[in-house]
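Z., the sequence and structure:
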Amino acid sequence: MNLSGSPTIDWRFYTSWHPDVRNLTQEAALRHYLDVGRYEGRLAAPVDIRLKPIACAGLCNQLYSHIHALIIARALNASTLMLPPARRRRSFGHVYAAARNTTSVHWSFSPVEGLLDVKRMAVYWAERGLTIQPTPPLRPSLPPSTDWPGPDSKLPTAVLHYELPGGEGCMDTRLRPLKRALPLPAYLAELKAAIGADAAPLLRGDPWARIPCVYLNPRCTFMAVETVRNLTLAAEAARGLFFNRSLVALADQVVKAMDPQGLGFNGLHLRLERDARDWHQMAGGAEALIQLYLQSMKAANFSAASLVYVASGLMTYDGGAELQQVRQKVAAMGLAKRLVCKEDLLPKSALAGLHPEQLALVDLLVLLRSTRLVGFGGSSFSFLLRELRALQGRPRATAHLLYPPGLEGPLSKPLFTGAGTLSPLSD
């Protein structure tokens, strides 16, 4: 049998896609496929891979999800990345607790275009060989749930069941839950194993069967792979993430109203909202956390001459009293000339109709331009902000992230450093 003549066998692909057989000769590789590989579902010819991930809850959790999905798509040489729907919370004013049965935070779907400039992303990535596909509709037979507890809860099953354009004959493969921050080769091996598990029944019966394409669902890709060892891919992915133009324009208006002469301002990510209650407890309570913020502002050389922009969800509900308390303490310590937030600078009509994730994105876009920044190290918002600033050329030393002594677990500094870093740590 002339195995090399089969249109469904590509021995060069086989030995590159499966690293454990990379050194086999052509005949040995083809024999391996017939005797072993097909029973394990190993692909023996290139396949059109179309990635369809899920975005985790929280603004920067889902922005990091997009960055990691782009890294994975590039590493897999995928043809298409299907953007998932965005996830929005009801309010920052609902209490989140690690125990699922005590949390009152709820999430719902929202068009991804409310956060991202999908058209600009599509043009940018098309030039690099990757098709960005807007979120397709869910199958009518599986209407989406509009509300569910989160972010620890399971997503509604319907979110996994899109109408797949051009998907006739394609496999639909779902990855099992994995640990965060896997080395990229290990993560890719898991994806290939998932494809293999679905392909095996077909290839056992017919080794020449053709699999034209695979819709690959890696679940939520938040902090999925190590970035610190893949900085070229990470930086490329982050630079290819473009934000909703209306929100960019709002951030421009905020900066112009706050700093019309361009003298500069400092930034503060104040994570004191009710949905961060567990973090407050780790720090010894909200008052102790405020004291850590004040110490960090002092260490970052904030002064009575500083204009400080505050990013916080406190003003999206009845949290104005907490913000006023911080203003008084900052003034007493001479750490700012004035603390302002977007609600102080824009008319209510400008922010009306924006959901909490969109409001948070306006804050992020403003803080990207701050001279100095103080943020919360356990927050993906603060960490991503620091990394995006570094990509813009602002030294990481201008961003001071505080880490309360009790901050441990899934949002730890090692996780964020390993899987959230987007450019060299030389500074």
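The radius of gyration is 24 Å. The chain has 15 helices and 13 strands.

Let me know what you think.
H.
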